[in-house]
Predict the structure.
Amino acid sequence: MDYLIKLIFVLLLSAGAYSQTVDRIAVIVNDGVVLESDIQLKIKNFKKEAAISGARVPSEEDLRNEIVEALIIEELQLQIADKAGIKISDEELNVTVRRVAQQNDLTIEEFIQSIEDEGDSYELVRDEIKRSLKINRVQQGRVQNRISITQEELVNFLNTEEAKTQLGPELNVRQILIRTNSQKNIDNVYNEVVESVDSGKNFIELSENFSEDQNKGDLGWRKITGFPELFQSTLEKLKIGEVSEVIKSGAGSHILYLNDKRGPAVSFEKEWEVRHILLIPNRVRPDDESEELMISIRERLLAGEDFDQLAAEYSDDPGSKQEGGKLGWAGEGKYTEAFEEVMMRSNLNEVSLPFRSDFGWHILEVTGTRIEDKTNERIADQAFNYLYSRKFEEELESDLQELRAEAFIEIKDY
């Protein structure tokens, strides 16, 4: 999509400024051609874009050669698209144009108007976007199956300083430093701190009272790579609100506390621990009888019978019945809408009324709730996308070189 946005603004500069000279075939590309007018338009666009951005303009010969090569590659990919029968529907094209307009803080009407205000053709812009979508489809089809990212590669990348700096969140950390020559006993301080935090006391107050550093324990906001190397492995394991073990350094003994984290990847999600019993209606036990049986099972549970045993005896869910109906921990979006709605409205340790989902009749019990930090999962997703993009560019470059080498190309004298 970034490519499309750049393309749009080049087109906005001179989308209608075709050469007024007599056109001719400049390059033969297999069964297709590149026209001289195509080359001249690209040269003119490049120079106008360079004038706006301040970029260096190559010599006339070098610029022409670069543009000719780019148009050859483009033509080869469009020929593949035509042979493969790739079509871009008006709906897909409209969605893409609208997205480009939104990313530039314009309505579609303002976007069209901005093109026309430049004296250019909106239809030409649409046509160029369609060509770009076709090329993108060809590239995805030819390259994506060549890309493989192993778990080991992902883990190794996540452990690099590049990944930690680029993708990792900022951490707000406090410490208690007891200096080597201090009169305070670190073991006594540590035990008191842990006991105080467990009882709900604010660590900020504790660090201000105990810490013997100049900042009263405040280490501020930093990426993990900004903290001393001695702290980094410990901070990677800490959850918000947790106290570390004692860390020894040349300055003394440190107790770290992760106070908060921030950044685009930071994400917290509520999760529910649930168990259930499912009855799937069938010919022997139709829907109404399944409902009646579920009502009686619930009554037995309320009378004190064991959930695990009743789930093992009656539940039609093969994945959970031998586990006492336990489904484990899950956040929103894992279960069907009907199940999730009841789960989210249920009180802890109360058996729900029987309810119907697409699978059949259920009763459920929420046995726990928690807020889980999903930041590391989001960072892993971003890291995967980063590695995929990098490999995609490498594979694409190689594929385009092969495509160029295998094609029949005849560049006419200019």
